[in-house]
Amino acid sequence: MRRGLFVYDQRGTELAQNKFYRRTELAKFFVQHPDQQEPVRLHRRLTLWIQNTPAQLNTRYLNNSSSSKCRWRDCPDPTHTIQKGFWRVAFDEYSGHTTQNHTDPYLNAGYMHLYCFEKAFDLGYLIHHAPRDYGFRILPDNRHFPREERNAASLKRDHPEMSAVYEKWLNEQSQRSFPPGYTGFEQINVPDKDRLWSRLTEEHLRRESKTRDTTRKTRPGTGNHIAFHRGNLEMMVKTKQAEKASKKRKNKDSDEEEGGGGSDDDEGVEQPRVERPVPVPKKRRVESPLESPHRLGGLVSPGVESPHHLGGLVGLGVNNTQLGPQASGFFYYPVPDNSAGPSLHYPAPPAIPQQHGFYNIDPALAASSTTPVRPPPQGPSTPRLEPVPTSLPRTRKRSRENSEDINERLSKKPMTRGGADEIIVAMQNEPQHVRDRIISAAPASSAAILKERIQKRVLQGETLPEVHEYDFDARVGKLRTRERLNLDATLIKIEKHKDPKKNNSI
DNA sequence: TCCACGGCATTGGATACGAG
DNA sequence: CTCGTATCCAATGCCGTGGA
Predict the structure, then answer these.
(1) What is the DSSP letter of A139?
(2) Nucleic strand C near CB of residue A302 (< 7 Å)
(3) A150: which of A8, A387, A440, A502 is 20 to 30 A away, CA to CA?
(4) More confident position, A6 or A505
């Protein structure tokens, strides 16, 4: 087995950024992880959650928006973005822990569009048979987390009726029959209306408030929204590409007109335009025909793809000639909500070693770089107050992050003198334009306190940038006299309240 | 008081463009 | 070439308003 196929990020939690996988590779990941036998992976209990794509949770991921990319290499979207409104599948390798909320439920090994999953695999078959045959589960995400206010990824987030849609679709799947040796990792041809992504999207659109629909329609825009593509990722991508090509064409036309162009028009005869080819994304390897049955005859055969295309699985012992349902139409139904099938015994998670937050699955193994340790959530509410370490080279990104953190501090009212001192330290490593940006975003009252503290520290002999190097006056000047007096009085009160012994000492 | 509705704000992704 | 910024667009959340 090829080592290094599933490389994790530095924290060992998530598949490496910008790494995308072929169908066969994903199947390997689901069925038997290359490192399954290693001690660090003993806790691995893979569950694929069918879920909503939550909004405003990028800060919860390890690598912001990179974490939530679709991991299928042949995803129709060249950017692999799973946009809000699309359904997705989360690869939760440690579901025994996340379900109990002992680990952060938003830190998963990876994600896929549900659209892509259904295009790449036989979802209906795998939901029923994977627990017994392959040792992983596929479940609708209906979880409630004890330590979360809500499950923003829940299938039922917007409408509880989504569960019924899922159940209905699942029941329909049980009517299907399969040839011997069927693995479920085949690509199948099914009309869109019979895909789960379509059923869920249609129900979602049917149940959404009129307001949302009206808002969508009245907004200026291209119209390539969910009510148009209805969850069809390929349609969305193609429409977007066509719009882009059209826009470029228009721009080119107008440029030519402005520059006295149009001379090479064919005698005024209107010719059908040829769309410009959409640029191929970089670093995307050209696949061999064997890897994609679409390239073989243009279409997947109406039946199923030969399991031989899944050559990698044969070596894993998951060629399903023995495991598959010998009696066509037989379906194995082990998966009511949140339960495990008979072949899946998920042990109770270890005791929680701390009152709050999440914990590492196996602290003893945390030192290993490949340990699947889930770090505490990178909550947006935890501002970094330290200055950027001087050992790291200063970059625009770091400066921006630092200035954002400082601005967050500055926005907290009222600011104390101690707080102002911390911010001054944090700003020291930043160049003037960054300091200006911080100050310009600060409330006038906070800027006033900062100015006062800097003046005091300079007078005490500290080597700080001169006060005039901070663009305070624009901010402080906005404070009227009465406001300044009020601020001063408030400040004194705060300082007294914080430390009565030290009051008046500043 | 509750609820539906409508408007606006926020957030995040994509992209073009410019600076270093 | 990389990184940062500005802008546009879509989805979603929040909040005010008015009617029952």
Answers:
(1) E
(2) no
(3) A8
(4) A6
DSSP bridge partners of A8: A15
In this prediction, residue A76 carries a pLDDT of 78
Calpha distance A364→A375 (Å, rounded): 14
Contact assessment for residue A86 and residue A53, using Cβ atoms and an 8 Å cutoff: yes
Strands (E), A149-254: none
Q: Which of residues 132-191 of A touch strand C (CB under 7 A)?
A: 152, 157-158
Measured CA to CA, the distance from residue A410 to residue A223 in angstroms comes to 40
Sorted by where each begins, the domain ranges of chain A are 1-248+283-381, 396-502
Predicted model pTM: 0.57
Per-residue pLDDT tens over the stretch A370-390: 223 333 333 332 233 333 333
Residue nearest to nucleotide B7 (CA to C1'): A215
Q: How are strands ordered across the β-sheet holding A47-51?
A: A110-113, A88-92, A47-51, A137-140
pLDDT above 70 as % of chain A: 31
Q: Which residue is nearest to nucleotide C3 (CA to C1')?
A: A396
Give the pLDDT score at A11: 62
